[in-house]
Structures are given as structure tokens and as C-alpha cells.
Amino acid sequence: MIRNWNLSTIGLNSIILKDKMIIVSNFSNSNFYNIDFSGSSILFSLFEYSTFNNCIFNNTTIKYTIFAGSTFSDCSFIDSNIVNSNFNGTNTHNSSFNDSDLYYSTFTSSKLTNTTFVECNLKKTDFYKSERNNVSFKYSNYEEAFFNRDR
Amino acid sequence: MRCFINFSLSGFSNCYLIGPDDGGDAIVIDPGEMNIKLLNLIEDNNFYIKHILITHNHKPHIGGIKTLLKIYDAEIYSSEENILGYPSNLIHPNSTINLSGIEVKVMEFSGQTKDTLIYKVEEMLFTGDTLGAGSIGEWENKNTIALVSQSISKGIKKLDDSILVFPSHGPPSTIKAEKDFNPELFLYE
């Protein structure tokens, strides 16, 4: 278990963090390259303004976690439970969130390129002011997501 | 000090629990629902709820008060003298209150109403419906939104980037992320 760790600005390369519990930890402004987080639970943690390259988050549980301002390249969040988490201002390309529950997570002001949200639960997922280029929401309940705000 | 989040399906709202590391008198912010998960959080951490802070008097944020008061001898603090028929200690923006040794700064950002309060405890900002991750609260019309946006923008400008933002709905954020990515702020400068 990784709990109450403050590792901001760390650089991690080719590390396996499978099936770990990461709770109330700070990894902001960090670089993650080729990291396997699959099966992990990431709760109440801070990863803002970080870079993720070729990272695997499959079968993870991510709750109340902040990724705002981060960049994701060639990352996979398949079959995950990503609830109440903040992806605002993120830049994501060549990545997949397929088969995931993204309930109440936010992608406001994000840039999404070549990224798929196939068969996802998008209830209350917020994509307001996001730029989407070659993004697929196939078989997802995207009508329950927010793309506009009626003000 | 420890802080816990409890999600309530009633109103899809967040309730926050703050207490000392070694247990003791604790604070609940916006108890929208008193469910078994919240009770377990309180009891497993050896907390005793002594104070209930309300950001605003809406059902998703006060629905759990009745049950909480049956279990704990707690005092309510809000911008109103009465919440759900229970007496509430009236608190005002720009003041600081000390609740069992925990210093709470009382703030107000919207500029439109004194009913909606924000609480700052150490480096945590509990923003109610005023400020969420990438959004501001719902207001009556476009003119009001412009004024509210201006007022909240002015309010958060003064705060350190590293402060954590805990809204009543949706995910947490940081002041830096709100300054950088909230499309409803800094529009009218």
C-alpha cells in the first residue's frame, strides 16, 4: 500500500505497480513511462500536470483523484472504475477508456485525439469545452454525458 | 488532521468528514445523507461529531442532519439561524471560527448571496456549489453568471495554487487547475 506519500516531480520508468493501493498520495508534476498500474486502486490522490507515456491502468479503481493538466500518450484505462475524478485540461492521444465506468468524472477543457470510450458508462461525465479529434463513444450512453451547459 | 469524502446518491453530493489524526471531536460538512458508510467512517476513526458545517441550505447537503443529531450531540453552523427546524449558529463571511481546535475560515465568493458559504481548513477549500472542478454553480441568468464568474475569479486569484478544492458535487480539484482550465472563470476581465 502506498499511503500519504509525497512524490511530486518524480520520474518513474518501467515499474510495475500492479494491484497496489495508492491512497492520499501526491505525484503531481511527475513523469511516468511504461508503468503498469493494472488492478490497482488509486484513491484521493494527486497526479496533476504529469506525463504518462505507454502506461496501463486496466481494471483499476480510480476515485476522487486529480489528473488535471496531465498528458496521456498510448495509455489504456480499459475495464476500469473511474469515478468522480478530474481529467480537466488533460491532453490525451492514442488511448482507450473502453468498457469503463466514468461516472461523474470531468474532461472539461481537455484535448482528446485518437481516443476511444467504447461501451462506457458516461452518466454525468463532463466533456464541456473539450476538443475531440477522432474520438469514439460507440455503444456508450453519451447522451447522459455533458457536452454543453445550458446557461 | 484527516479528511474523508463520503458520496451520497441522494442528490449525487459529496459530504466531508474532518477530524484529528488520533480521533476525537470532528466536523461534518454538508451531510446530504447519513448512511452506513459515513457512520463507519466516523466510528472507525474514533470520531465524535461535534460540529456540522453547512455551505448552503439545500436538501442534497442537509438531508442527513436529523439522523446525525439523533446519534451525536452536535452544533450546526451556517448562514441561517435555522436548518430543518434545528437551531444553527449564524456565521458570516470573512470570519474565522475555532471548532474543537480546528480553525475554519469562512468565505464567500459568489458576490450574489450571503447564503452560500465556503470553508477553508488548512490547505483545503470546501466550496459547496459555488465552485466545482471546471464549473461554477447554477445561477439565474446570464447577467448573474457574469457577475458571479467575476467575483469567484477575483476570490480564487488570491489563493495559493496548491490549495485543494472540495466541491459539493463531482471530483476534487486544485486552485491551479481551476485557474488554468475552468472555462467559466476569468471570462469577464
What this model shows, in words?
The complex is a heterodimer of chains A (151) and B (189). Chain A has 151 residues and is an all-beta fold. Chain A has one domain: Pectate Lyase C-like (3 Solenoid). Helices cover 0% and strands 29% of the residues of chain A. Chain A contains no helices and twelve strands. In chain A, the strands form two sheets. In chain A, strands 2-4-6-8-10-11-12 form a seven-stranded parallel sheet, with no helix packed on it. A five-stranded parallel sheet of chain A has the order 1-3-5-7-9, with no helix packed on it. Chain A is globular. Chain A starts with a strand and ends in a 15-residue tail after the last strand. Chain B is of the alpha/beta class. In chain B, a hairpin with a 4-residue loop joins strand 2 (13-19) and strand 3 (24-29). A seven-stranded mixed sheet of chain B has the order 1-2-3-4-5-7-6. A six-stranded mixed sheet of chain B has the order 8-9-10-11-14-15. Chain B has a two-stranded antiparallel ribbon with strand order 12-13. Chain B has five helices and 15 strands. The mean pLDDT of chain B is 91. The A-B interface holds A 44, 46, 48-49, 64-66, 68-69, 84-86, 88-89, 104-106, 108-109, 124, 126, 128-129, 149, 151 and B 5, 7, 12, 14, 133-135, 142, 145, 164, 169-174, 176-177, 180-183.
CATH topology of chain A: Pectate Lyase C-like
Please report which band the strand proportion of chain B falls in: under 5%, 5-15%, 15-25%, 25-35%, 35-45% or over 45%.
Answer: 35-45%
Number of strands of chain B: 15
Order of helices and strands of chain B: EEEHEHHEEEEEEEEEHEEH
Secondary-structure content class of chain B:
alpha/beta
Distance between the termini of chain B: 37 Å
| SSE topology string of chain A | EEEEEEEEEEEE
Low-confidence parts of chain A:
none
- Most extensive interface: pair and counts? A-B, 25 and 22 residues
Helix content of chain B: 10-25%
- Adjacency order of strands in the biggest sheet of chain A: 2-4-6-8-10-11-12
Poorly predicted segments of chain B: none
Number of DSSP strand runs of chain A: 12
The global form of chain A is: globular
Oligomer category: heterodimer
Sheet with most strands: strand arrangement of chain B: 1-2-3-4-5-7-6
Number of helices of chain B: 5
Q: How much helix, percentage-wise, in residues of chain A?
A: under 10%
- The fraction of residues assigned to DSSP E strands of chain A is 25-35%
Query: Structural class, judged by helices and strands of chain A?
Result: mainly beta
Q: In the CATH classification, which architecture of chain A applies?
A: 3 Solenoid
